[in-house]
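User: what does the whole thing look like in 3D?
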Amino acid sequence: MSQLTLLIVFDAVLLVTLLVLAFAAVLSPEPRRAVMLFIAFGLWLSLIWARLQAPDVALAEAAIGAGLGGALMLAAARRAARTASRSRGDDAS
Amino acid sequence: MSAPAGLDRATERSRDLRLLLAVLLTLLGVALTLVYLIALNAGAAPRLADLAYERLPSTGVQNPVTAVLLNYRAYDTLMELAVLLAALLGIWALGPAPPGFQRSGAVLAAMVSWVVPLLIVTGGYMLWVGGYAPGGAFQAGALLGAAGVIVRLAGDPRAGLPGEAAQRWLLVAGVLVFTLVGLGLMAFGAGFLTYPPTLAKWLILLIEAAATVAIGAALAAAYVGGRPPGPDARPTAEDEDALTPAQTPANPPAPPLDPRP
Amino acid sequence: MSDAALTHPLVLCIALPLLGAMLVTALPRWSVRLGILAAVATAAAAVALAATVWQQGTLHLMLGGWDRQLAIALRADGIATALVLMANLVALGISVYASGYFHDRVRVRSFWPLWLLLWAGLNGLFLAGDLFNLYVMLELLGIAAAALGALTGNRDAVAANLRYLLVGLLGSISYLLGVALLYTAYGTLDLGLLAAGIADSPQLLAVNAAAMTLMVAGLALKAALFPLHFWLPPAHANAPAPVSAALSALVVKAVFYLILRLWLDLFWPITGMAAAMLPALLGAVAIVWGSWRALRAERLKLLAAYSTVAQIGYLFLFLPLLAATPPGPARDDLLAALLLMAVTHGFAKAGFFLAAGLVQTNAGHDRIDDLGGTAQRLPATTFAIALSGSALIGLPPSGSFIGKWLLMQSAIATGQWWWVIVVTTGSLLASAYVFRVLSRAFGLEPTPMRFITDARAEVPALTLALVSVAVLGLASGPVWTLLGLSAAGVGA
Amino acid sequence: MLIAQFLYGGAGLVLFTLGLWSFLVHEPLLRKIIALNVTGAGVFHVLIAIAYRGDAAPPDPVPHALVLTGIVVAVSATALALMLGARLQDADEEDQTP
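Assistant: Here's the predicted 3D structure for the full assembly of 944 residues, as structure tokens:
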């Protein structure tokens, strides 16, 4: 019984962390930060999937979803930041 | 992006709208959760699991997920490779790749020289191991793609991929081999993508190898973000002679940073 | 699998365009020639499929030869076959037109692989018998269509198609959640098995209703049902002409087909009168609103795009009528009328967009008010616009005349007379917007030249328009026969 | 039914709703794309949860394969959407500079 409770607590901690990461990623207005949080969310997701006995999917999510998807988004965030700084520069001049 | 003055009312309204949406969607979430609870209790419990394991010995692989991906539901996987290719061709249609970043320092270069081969070797291992343990074409392809991203970050504008002509063959390899195997089986009377149990293992490995190459190339090329620079690239988007044979390349090939052994 | 040879055309309709797309991608130098070859081969496979279904009735194939729960099914019944035939003939016309439309080498090389992938996705969608496979097909369609729509690379086209892509993704994720709920409750993805399961489980009403709402709402977003149509006019009006034709005539129609399939085959125990009223009301608003905006449109292609919003509305009007009609000959007639309208609109709208594209390349613009003299300069093209316009209005002898006639007849027979007002209003507005174009086209410049100036571009437009008016209207009998072959499969 | 199935699946539904909300209210493209990915991850999470059959029984491989397919589709769409957005940004910059 206590083992079951422990397991449920463990699951609850995993899930709460996941949801916190998701909320943080979605609510962050700063692009780079949002992408970083999204990558963390994806990696945490793959951890949970490994715990749910889905190692194949966990590997794929870590590599494709969080890894390559995150890399693509980071490039876009860098782009957005560059444009923003340039337009701020235009405003100042 | 800069908000002109006088938008206060609008922002206030949008805040109200957000709140309203949040409330509505919370209700939706609660309703969905209840429905999900009912669905879980509907009594379909083993679903397809037992049947999938029962048929596993005749699929040619021992990893059940690989069996679903490349045997039971191989047709889905074929079309999914087509989706990946469509997205990449859409990216290529938007224009040539932006110039790469400047070549980075010695530390990164040194890292590239051992991380990239490691990724490629691991990818090959993943592909092979996918038949009986976690792994397979997607994970292997993703590792190849990651190797491409690292090479690109280290300064190679082509992310370690070959010139456009060869790259096109790499990209289509997955769908092409998949379709040809399927049609070949159909021609021999087995039915589209119906593997004879004795050949299944090798046919699946063949398809997976081609798919790995295609996925890796497509992911790396997607990160490059445009038609490949290099000898085969067409520098101008506005040349008119659609059916004349290609001219000989004028510019020399890109600097060699080809990590493949 | 001794019947493998028998089901060949089912597989070939999907494998041939896919193979063609690969060859065109790998050998870009021959893209036009290989592309046309693949187009002809695919259309031939579709004709062969239609002939086989005609002779043998509904075709069914379990891929991989596994148990029905485990494998992905392909199937072709009367409804699917009629739409496959329409889509492939229209696509062949678009291919011929496109072979002369693009001149820029980069665009030629971008168009063909994406176009053939889109085509494979269309045929795959029409012939799929598995819910998750349908999701993959929807994504293939969405991604290929957005990429093709942005092909011109100008700002408006990119912005419109980015929005189209995002909206489409949202729609397909919603659809996928519905699929996940159904798999949770029934443990299968096969359409036929699920239909039986849903029919046997009235106690799971909440699950069925939630899954239906998620799936149909997601698809309505992709099918541009009012008020979810906002993305369609800019995306379709800014794409290159052959792409506009494919998007408006085929892609939207394919999504509607999927809605119809789910509505009639899968969820029929819960899609009664009450459920059918909402989409039909939205369809009615779409008819009036779309036609009105088409009338006020300044550009020819924008007019055609708004007209698509209205034409999709007509298709949704059939849902409450089908719900009110008991199974039997009357219901089969109604279903055939629905199909006839969808097929006619496919041909007519493709012809209209191809002709509009010719006007645009010839005049350098497509502003309706400045079209003076088009009739003299491009007589065949103007004729194509007039023909397809008459099919959009629903003038006899076009296929949509018969469709609308049966629609109104059924509305009166089932006591839902208000739809007659909507159809009449829509038809009046449609005649207004078509005649507005034609009256501008007959301008001054009395310089009659040859009827056809550019055969490769004008003949496809004219042929598609002619089919919509003459062939489908005068020889619509085969549609009924095709349906008769599968009538047993609908709602049974 | 297992408690874990309900718990994890419910979390997937929360992610779905959260992503939907964020997609509807946030304007910047990158935020919309992140929102779509969270929405999709929610659906995948539901599928993984129903595949789980406790630590004793092997999981159902079919939803796993569906999710694998879904992940690749999602990353393809993300890549195309980001590049369309980059192209749009270029066009806007060209408009502003002269």
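In plain terms: Chain D touches chain A through 46 residues (CB under 8 Å). Helices of chain D lie at 3-25, 29-51, 61-96.
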